[in-house]
Structure to design on (318 residues):
């Protein structure tokens, strides 16, 4: 499991964007407006702090056995995109989404 | 209702804005103060106006005019266009002042005074000219008009079946100044130069100017 075929590492944690309808977000808004959604994806194997390295070592030499421990950092937003706003289909209500989309990713 | 389910130019402009980082950011930056109620008021009008001025000052005309001057064929489109400036906060007020009084208020403010002067200079109609504008420059007229948004003279579309615009004022109680008041109000409401400029932008018929 998880053994990488080539010497090359799996793609590092990066910001990726997609063009969506606001309704695709599944937040219950009814509008025909659209937005760019940016998210973080990729692996965090190469990065990490000494803490991560120790957790890894402890798990490997079985000094630590727990399924609630994540020995690797996760690729997550470390900063969020600017707010986005849109007019509802009722043509009188505006909605503003905050912290809805990533701006910068990091292994945290 | 097919008129509402179909797309339109104003909707397309809103979509284009949200796909552009600057437009998206400055749009939300005015929607937020213009729709946040504060202590029994609909909004903080001063903050809403300031953010609207920044939107029209900093967003490229392709996007800002796209939303404000989009051409429409149905009510879903014209109503969206009318909502662009969040009129419930930036435009409407409990009372409608007399237009000449509003003009006096405008003249006490540096930004409003200069922008109103620009508007009167750059949207001056001239029936003899091909463009119907004395200055023959639609871009300057639209720039001057949009410059009034975020001042006490903030204009908006009056109804959904014409390009008639006006600030939030009327000419009741004008006394001896009725004629002067109507002349001022009609410069907004019934201005062929401004109407042609808006129409030309909406139809993309004046492309070389942008």
């Amino acid at each position: 499991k998880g053994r990488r075929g080539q010497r090359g590492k799996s793609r590092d944690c990066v910001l990726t964007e997609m063009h969506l309808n606001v309704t695709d977000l599944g937040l219950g808004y009814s509008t025909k407006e659209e937005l760019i959604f940016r998210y973080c994806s990729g692996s965090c194997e190469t990065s990490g702090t000494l803490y991560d390295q120790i957790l890894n070592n402890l798990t490997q030499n079985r000094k630590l056995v727990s399924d609630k421990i994540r020995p690797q950092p996760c690729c997550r937003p470390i900063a969020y995109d600017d707010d986005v706003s849109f007019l509802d289909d009722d043509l009188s209500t505006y909605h503003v989404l905050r912290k809805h989309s990533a701006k910068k990713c990091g292994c945290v | 209702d097919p008129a509402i389910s179909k797309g339109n130019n104003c909707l397309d402009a809103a979509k284009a804005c949200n796909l552009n980082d600057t437009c998206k950011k400055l749009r939300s930056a005015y929607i937020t103060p213009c729709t946040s109620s504060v202590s029994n008021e609909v909004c903080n009008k001063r903050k809403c106006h300031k953010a609207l001025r920044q939107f029209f000052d900093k967003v490229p005309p392709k996007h800002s005019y796209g939303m404000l001057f989009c051409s429409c064929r149905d009510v879903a489109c014209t109503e969206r266009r009318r909502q662009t400036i969040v009129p419930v906060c930036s435009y409407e007020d409990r009372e409608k002042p007399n237009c000449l009084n509003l003009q006096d208020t405008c003249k006490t403010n540096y930004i409003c005074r200069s922008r109103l002067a620009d508007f009167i200079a750059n949207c001056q109609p001239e029936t003899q000219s091909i463009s119907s504008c004395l200055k023959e420059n639609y871009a300057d007229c639209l720039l001057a008009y949009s410059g009034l948004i975020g001042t006490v003279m903030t204009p908006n579309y009056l109804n959904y079946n014409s390009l008639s615009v006006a600030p939030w004022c009327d000419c009741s109680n004008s006394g001896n100044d009725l004629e002067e008041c109507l002349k001022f109000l009609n410069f907004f409401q019934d201005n062929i130069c401004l109407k042609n400029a808006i129409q030309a932008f909406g139809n993309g018929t004046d492309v070389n100017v942008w």
